[in-house]
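Support request, please re-run this one:
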Amino acid sequence: MITVSDLRKVYRQGNNEVVALAGVSLEVPTGKIHGIVGHSGAGKSTLVRCLTLLDQPTSGTVAVNGKELTNVSASELRDARRRIGMVFQHANLFDSRTTEENVGYPLELTGTPKNEIKTKVAQLLELVGLDKFAKAYPSQLSGGQRQRVGIARALATDPDVLLCDEPTSALDPKTTDEILELVKELRGRLNITVLIITHEMHVVKQACDSVSLLEGGKIVEHGDIASVISNAKGRLAQTLMPLPGDAPRSAGSGTILDLLYTGDQATEPVISSLSRQFNIDVNVLAGSVEQLSDQQYAHLRIQLPAGINEQEIINHLQSNGIAVTVKGTK
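Re-run finished. Output below.
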């Protein structure tokens, strides 16, 4: 489990103070994948450095599996860092080392015997699907393969946490999906906690169980995917479940509603059921369906006919677990 409490980081620039993190708090349960999203300058890079204590926070605490990292000795911090595997944007491999030598490097640093390193590396390369590339150098590998080497290296010390800093931003869409599938598979097999720092909402859609929106050094939205989606007015919901860009805002007269279906509701014939129950014609103006965290979600814009009791219909929809936003009346 990762627990961050009221984390602040303030940099001094001459007589000025720059607040990079302004009281960040979050908790990621064991075995979950959590995404931290935000634009450039939101504080994501600072958060990564503070989570690994490469940057000492100005205040607040960071704990992994109950072990607080912000108030330990240098030797204890070195041991704690071994429990956090780091995956970088560009893999950061040693060009002069082969695949197996890159993966084994963290074990060399800890003084692990050579025969144990050989066995462990072989297991890790098989785990990430690179057992046939043990003798290859980084220049001989594709971008996705280099990232797999980086993931295997991050797992060499059997970490509790995998911290991924923009792990797919340098990859093409197909390779991105392959890497995200690998991360999900490893999470399931190793019961490892994963934190992904990204600016790509596609990463959240494909891999994350929960997400936080970081802005100006603060978390402004946070939650598991289902609860985030159910907040129809939230920016994360609108970004994760957008309507087509040219979605019409009205067709004729009547109240316009945006509906967000969560979980199993996305597969239910809600509109046809609504039409039958209230004996009305419902106009579907636009819609989108997304697969998020292995569940299906839907976002619809509908228009009710004029002259009916809209509130009764809204209450009915909400009682069935559908998030409703009134967009206006024409």
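The two ends are 50 Å apart (CA to CA). The chain has two domains: 2-230, 242-329.
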